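Allow me, if you will, to draw on your knowledge of protein folds for a short while. The matter concerns a single protein, recorded as an amino acid sequence and a row of backbone structure tokens. Kindly check, if you would, that the fold set down in the tokens agrees with what the sequence suggests. You will find the record immediately after this paragraph.
***
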Amino acid sequence: QVQLVESGGGLVQAGGSLRLSCTTSGRTFSRYGMGWFRQAPGKEREFVAAISRSGGTTLYADSVKGRFIISKDNAKNTAYLQMNSLKPEDTAVYYCAVGHYYSAYSDSHKYDYWGQGTQVTVSS
């Protein structure tokens, strides 16, 4: 059984930083790419960032490029999302997901398993 557990969300002022973690179990973490998505109230889930299994390829949504950094530690079965210069429009529930394959994808349909989500709230 594959499980993903996100942590690190919370309330932060605009301009601040948070680091989200996603720890996985039940699947060989190092074989698959990982992704982060988010869903704000009343909006559809959207892509945030993705990383290939080796960490050599990363993708970012235009809205977070230059502010967020995705990484993964295969030894710890954990993926991270470092979020800097946060804006109120970053407020959402953030989800991590394990991909079908080894690469990085922005398409949510290419992810097999999802975490329960962690709330990030950015105040102005």
Remarks:
- The first strand starts at residue 3 and ends at 7.
- The mean pLDDT is 95.
